Amino acid sequence: MSEADEIRKAMSAIWERSRDTIMGRVVVLEAAVLALLAGNLTAESRRQAEREAHKLAGTVGTFGFDEASKLAREAEELLSGTGTIAPSDTVRLSNLAVQMRRQLERSPEEVAQAAAEPEQSEAGTRRHRLVIVDQNSEFRDRVATEARGLGVDVIGVPSANDARGLLGGTSALVLDLSVPDAGMAFLQELHASHPQLPVVVISNGDQFQDRVDAARYGGRGFLQKPVRPAQIFDVLRDALVISRDELPTIVAVDDDATVLNLIGSLLEPIGANVVKCGDPLRALSFLVEYAPDLVMLDVDMPGLNGIELCRVLRNDPRWAAVPILFLTARADTANVTQMFEAGADDFVSKPVTGPELVARVRNRLERTRMLRLAAEVDSLTGVATRRRGIEVLERFFRLAQRQRQPISIACIDLDHFKQVNDQFGHLIGDMVLRRVAGLLAGFFRGEDIVARWGGEEFVIGMYAMPADAAVRRLQTALAKLHSEVFEAGNSTLHVTFSAGVGEFPVDGDEWTTLYRVADNALSAAKAGGRNQVLRAVAGAG
Questions:
Q1: Is 153:130 a contact under the CB 8 Å cutoff?
Q2: Which residue ranges form the domains of the chain, and what is each CATH number?
Q3: Which pLDDT tens digit goes with each residue over 246-295?
């Protein structure tokens, strides 16, 4: 059976077990609509129907019911608040309930087939999938709701057996150790069969042995109950933000072609792109061309030995932080001391053994990735940091000037965000920022840059996109955000943003100039009442 067939079979089985619960939520919604039509809908029944619609919106999309998820979100919005529901909205709610039932009464085979195809976001990028092995359906629903705004699809299952058929194409997995057929044994199984799959472990207590075993079997994080959904995404942010298609690049410098070929073969299983340089005098040009994640150097080479080359690299700011691993046949104390004094991070003795080389390289690459993530990805929202945004914008402009392509920059500010923090608290404010960042990232292309500029401000750089197209895309994102319902304890809230857009080369020939133009347009949008996207006036700023 193919991987796709296994996933379809597993999804079909999960749907069969979940269908009664999901249809029960539809029944609650239908009962509320009937009561509303009869004029006797109570406040408690309305709140219950709103909650059930909220759960439906966060769950049914997992099984391929995208349209039903949208219908549920609309029903949730119409039921929110305490004011009188207008007659036109009552009719709309009735239609939504009918359409939802029609959607959800499709056969399990059709549902599974739809779920087997990886979903695409509105910007055309592949979405991530998170599997949660947990018997608490309420918790799974809360995680699914949080994930929706981050562009992550959640499949919640109550057992390890259900999860086994879903591992293909899964970006990460959350495992509750209290699940009867799972526990550490399932984590150990995952570590053996899917060693690259990030797994977060949730434990009822803080037993040190559980932490040891979780680390031993490859767990990426250990959380103690009670767990908030945001904690899961904080732990998994590197796995869900960094594309797994970005393979590490290693430049190996050695005058022995046999050793270079051996390195390439040994590192092939971890997916590394090994660039072979047989002349140490040409090493610098290789680094400029390939911008490696790791450099491997032989010690004994003609013309320029590895220790001297290491000093050259460490004296250049461009390569001062790149990990350097030595291969050496001389591992005596004096030679090892020289390597580390020159700036080496690690060494492997010749003759090289495969497992040792792979383990040391993988360890170095993982640490580099974590440090790079800390510098490039905002820890709260998961989008780029301001520093990373500036780097990408500068690169965009150099490329655009060479290729004579347009660039649009958008400055975005959440409307009245201080009121959200003041009224509902900073935890709710942080949740809003994460959801907004996820929505913005989902509405733009993979080659665009979405950066958190500070506080509730974001900047988006859109290569080869004219301002008019950028404005339309932002207006669509604004409408989508306005329809989002944020839970804040017993209350709900909606948020909007204002934005200004400038375009190169119309509004300036440097990214700093264009940023000022877009920021001026943002100020005009806020002065005009907020909740709008303005195109900058040509030449302004």
A1: yes
A2: 1-116 (1.20.120), 118-242 (3.40.50.2300), 249-374 (3.40.50.2300), 386-535 (3.30.70.270)
A3: 578 899 999 888 888 888 888 877 778 899 999 999 999 898 888 888 99
